[in-house]
């Protein structure tokens, strides 16, 4: 390799779509030192990829540090698992990310356990919990706190800076900068999930000089699909219409910030003169809400909110003819209290169900939305199938993601942009963003899962395809006791097969 090319970084992604966010960034120095960072280590939430939650397709022992962009489960959900499997290096995040992540992960461990306890009664192959509360505590003990706009020296050649991000209260963009003697620096900015503004906090601006640096950006593309999806606000009209028809409403809701956004909207409906009878059965949302009430800039809670804490209170709600607004987590319907409430209220004509978030392929929410009325479904954790009677709706107005054109406007602010590497979106969304960036004369590639990218300080990219050795499947059920610790997926690199230089 020529000396010009011996200072570079590589990027490899391990998730195809929106959830399960995890990227390995390896920085290679001319003196043969290599530093490996894992950016986020999230849960695969689509049922389609659930099995992948147990896979760690890189050598854990080679990871020098984990950088966490924000506390959504699809970005932090497997941190206890990698720690359980042997990772014991630092995990860097902001203070609020650590605080909320603590609630998220503890809840996640409890949900795993309780789902397992329920499901094992009906399914012989029920999966044991991915990790325990002890694993969560072990992961939390590795966190180090970073402040916005304050670079820290990871070592003498690498500095890392967190920037504020409006995606949710605790979100960040993260810049890694590597220097070596008189070489041009390597810089890469991970946007995490990005939004330029936030209803609950003032954004600390990214300093102007950052926009002048030569760098590459790794960006999400969640909302970049070129579809007819409507982001028009419909929630308020749906709620008012139900109240006026004396119908109750069940709202599966993301625990983090979506809950606060829904509350803010309900407060505004209340201010129009409607009396709302709101019950919240979402322990995680309630816990995170207590953090928001401290750190938010606004008062968003409606006046008449009851928090459900016991099985008895729940039973009263299920049997009551009273029409309430019931808010339960989780947003896609698969976890938390949602399956229980969906099992009780999907069969009721006097209730409507409003999903307030993106529904991933194969999520319970997506299945329910796609199910024709009066057809049957079995809700996980329940033995019998039930009929879908309630009218179901979905609104996308609350997205914490930025829309495609706004994302491109943000990216165009960088005056010396070298490349954009696209991830965290369905294929069509990634492709659409790529085309739109290229139409703006911005080099763009898709991160992908079966290839890795080598990037020089000049921004020159080479892409290598990884061909996994065919797995023998005829005899094998994967052993539950298989030791993933030291496992590396055997692979062959077809050198230069997909090289694309810019
Ligand atoms: Zn997110
Ligand atoms: Zn995400």
Protein architecture, described:
- The protein folds into two domains: 3-225 and 400-494, Metallo-beta-lactamase, Chain A; 235-394, 3-Layer(aba) Sandwich (Rossmann fold), CATH 3.40.50.10890.
- It is built from twelve helices and 24 strands.
- The strands form four sheets. It has a nine-stranded mixed β-sheet with strand order 6-5-4-3-2-1-22-23-24. Strands 7-8-9-10-11-20-21 form a seven-stranded mixed β-sheet, with helices on one face. A six-stranded parallel β-sheet has the order 14-13-15-12-16-19, sandwiched between helices.
- The protein is globular and about 75 Å long.
- 25% of the residues lie in helices and 23% in strands.
- The model is unreliable at 470-502 (pLDDT under 50).
- With 502 residues, the protein is α/β, with parallel strands linked by helices.
Count of discrete structural domains: 2
* Helical run tally: 12
Named once each, the bound ligands are: zinc ion
Number of strands: 24
Side-by-side strand order of the widest sheet: 6-5-4-3-2-1-22-23-24
Using the coordinates above, name the CATH class of the largest domain.
Alpha Beta
Estimate what percentage of residues fall within beta strands.
15-25%
The CATH homology group name of the largest domain: Ribonuclease Z/Hydroxyacylglutathione hydrolase-like
The assigned CATH architecture of the largest domain is 4-Layer Sandwich
């Amino acid at each position: 390799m020529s000396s010009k090319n011996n200072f570079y970084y590589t990027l490899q992604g391990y998730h195809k779509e929106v959830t399960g966010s995890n990227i390995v960034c390896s920085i290679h120095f001319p003196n043969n030192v290599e530093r490996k960072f894992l950016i986020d280590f999230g849960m695969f939430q689509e049922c389609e990829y659930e099995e992948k939650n147990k896979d760690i397709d890189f050598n854990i022992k080679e990871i020098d540090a984990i950088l966490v962009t924000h506390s959504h489960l699809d970005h932090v959900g497997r941190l206890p698992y990698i720690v359980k499997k042997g990772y014991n290096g630092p995990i860097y995040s902001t203070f609020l990310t650590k605080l909320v992540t603590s609630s998220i992960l503890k809840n996640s461990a409890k949900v795993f356990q309780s789902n397992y306890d329920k499901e094992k009664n009906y399914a012989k192959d029920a999966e044991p919990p991915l990790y325990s509360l002890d694993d969560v505590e072990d992961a939390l003990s590795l966190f180090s706190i970073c402040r916005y706009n304050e670079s820290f020296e990871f070592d003498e050649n690498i500095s890392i800076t967190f920037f504020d991000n409006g995606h949710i209260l605790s979100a960040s963009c993260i810049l890694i900068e590597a220097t070596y003697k008189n070489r041009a620096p390597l810089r890469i900015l991970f946007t995490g999930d990005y939004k330029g503004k936030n209803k609950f906090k003032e954004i600390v601006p990214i300093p102007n000089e950052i926009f002048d640096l030569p760098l590459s950006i790794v960006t999400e593309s969640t909302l970049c699909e070129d579809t007819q999806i409507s982001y028009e606000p419909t929630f308020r009209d749906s709620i008012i219409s139900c109240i006026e028809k004396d119908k109750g409403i069940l709202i599966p809701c993301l625990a983090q910030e979506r809950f606060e956004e829904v509350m803010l909207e309900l407060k505004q409906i209340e201010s129009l003169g409607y009396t709302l009878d709101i019950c919240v059965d979402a322990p995680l949302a309630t816990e995170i809400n207590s953090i928001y009430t401290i750190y938010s800039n606004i008062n968003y809670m409606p006046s008449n909110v009851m928090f459900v804490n016991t099985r008895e209170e729940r039973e009263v709600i299920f049997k009551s003819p009273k029409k309430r607004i019931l808010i339960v987590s989780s947003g896609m319907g698969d976890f938390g209290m949602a399956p229980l409430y969906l099992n009780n209220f999907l069969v009721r004509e006097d209730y409507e169900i409003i999903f307030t978030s993106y529904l991933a392929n194969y999520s319970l929410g997506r299945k329910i939305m796609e199910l024709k009325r009066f057809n049957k479904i079995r809700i996980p954790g329940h033995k019998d199938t039930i009929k879908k009677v309630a009218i179901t709706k979905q609104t996308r107005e609350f997205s914490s993601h930025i829309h495609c054109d706004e994302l491109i406007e943000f990216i165009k602010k960088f005056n010396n942009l070298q490349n954009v590497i696209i991830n965290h979106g369905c294929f069509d969304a990634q492709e659409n963003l790529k085309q739109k960036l290229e139409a703006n004369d911005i080099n763009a590639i898709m991160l992908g899962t079966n290839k890795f990218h080598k990037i020089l300080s000049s921004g020159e990219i080479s892409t290598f395809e990884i061909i996994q050795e065919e797995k023998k499947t005829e005899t094998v059920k994967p052993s539950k006791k298989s030791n993933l610790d030291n496992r590396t997926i055997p692979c062959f690199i077809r050198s230069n097969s997909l090289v694309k230089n810019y």
